[in-house]
Design a protein that fits this description.
mainly beta, 7-stranded antiparallel sheet, 7 strands, disordered N terminus
């Protein structure tokens, strides 16, 4: 299963199995679409789930999902 969420310009397609938005599968911003190759790390705080991921464009991204608002954001793109 997947679910699309938006916050500003980002749309995330995420796998939802046991719980909603277990892991991101891909995301898009405007004309850019990035498939997630690997989830490198994940962590939580009281309100958000964070995912450090590698995209098919060779870059690393930190995506976060706000559980209360059901919205996604990119917190920091990094170069590999």
């Amino acid at each position: 299963m997947s679910k699309n969420n938006t916050e500003g310009q980002i749309k995330v397609n995420a796998y939802s199995g046991f719980k909603a938005n277990e892991r991101p599968l891909s995301f898009s911003m405007g004309d850019l679409k990035v498939e997630i190759v690997k989830v490198i790390d994940r962590w939580t705080d009281p309100d958000r789930d964070f995912f450090r991921v590698q995209g098919d464009d060779g870059r690393l991204y930190i995506l976060s999902w706000d559980r209360g608002k059901d919205t996604w954001s990119i917190d920091r793109p990094d170069k590999c």
